[in-house]
Amino acid sequence: MIFSVIRNLIAGQPVNIWTVAAQVISILFIIICVLPFHELAHGWVAGKLGDPTAKLEGRLTWNPLASVDTAGALALLLFGFGWAKPVPVDPRYFKKPRRDMALTALAGPAANLLAALVGALLVTVIQIFAPYNGFTNFLFSALYYYVVVNISLAVFNLIPAPPLDGSRILSSFLSYRALDVYYRYQNLFVMLLFFLMFTGALSGPLYRVQSLFANAIFFVAELPFRLFGLI
User: Fold this and answer.
1) Nearest-CA neighbor of 108 among 85, 76, 131, 128?
2) Which sequence positions are flagged as catalytic?
3) What is the pLDDT of residues 112-124, one digit of tens each?
4) Alpha-carbon distance 206 to 136, whole Å?
5) How far is Cα 9 from Cα 227, in angstroms, rounded to an integer?
6) What pTM, to 2 d.p., does this model score?
C-alpha cells in the first residue's frame, strides 16, 4: 500500500493525500481489530472442537497486543497483505484431526469475509442515506478500502502454501504419503509463493478471485435494501 504510494511518487504520478489517509486509517483499524478477530476465530473454533490450547494461553481475546505481529503489521501497511501471531492449536485434542484442523484454519478467512460484509453494509448505508460531502466521501473511501483489504487477506490466506491457512485446509484432503511430501518441501513452496507474488504472477488470478468474493459480498450487503426498494 504505502509501497505503491512511494512508487507513484518516484514515477512522478499524482497522489491524493486524502485517499492515502483513508487507506492508512483502514489498515490501522484492521491491524488493531480485524487481525485479532482472525486469530480469535481460529482459537474459538478450535475450542469448540475440543482444543483448549488458545484459551489456556490467553489467546481468546480482542486485545491486539496478544495477536499483532510487528513484521506482519508493517507488511500490511507497506504492501496490503500481512499476518498476525498465529493462535496455538494442538490437533491431538481433535476427535477428527484432519477435518477439525481444516475447519479451524477456515475460520480465519471466514472472519475476514464477515468483517468485509459488515464494511460493505456500512458502505451501502452511506451510498443510500448519507449526504455527499467531503467527510462522507472520506468515510466511504476508508470503508471501501477496508472491505477490499479484508477480502484480499481472506483470499491470500486461502492459498494452499505453508504457513497460510489454505495449506491446513488442503492437508485434510491429501493422503498421508502426499502430505509427507507436501510438508517435506514446504520451504520450497514458501519460496515459490514469494517469488510469484513479487514478480506479479499471482496478481491476475488473485484479482479475479477477489473480484468474485467482492461481488458476492456487496450483493449480500445490498440485498435487504433492494428488497425494500431503496436501491
Assistant:
1) 85
2) 39
3) 999 999 999 999 9
4) 30
5) 45
6) 0.89
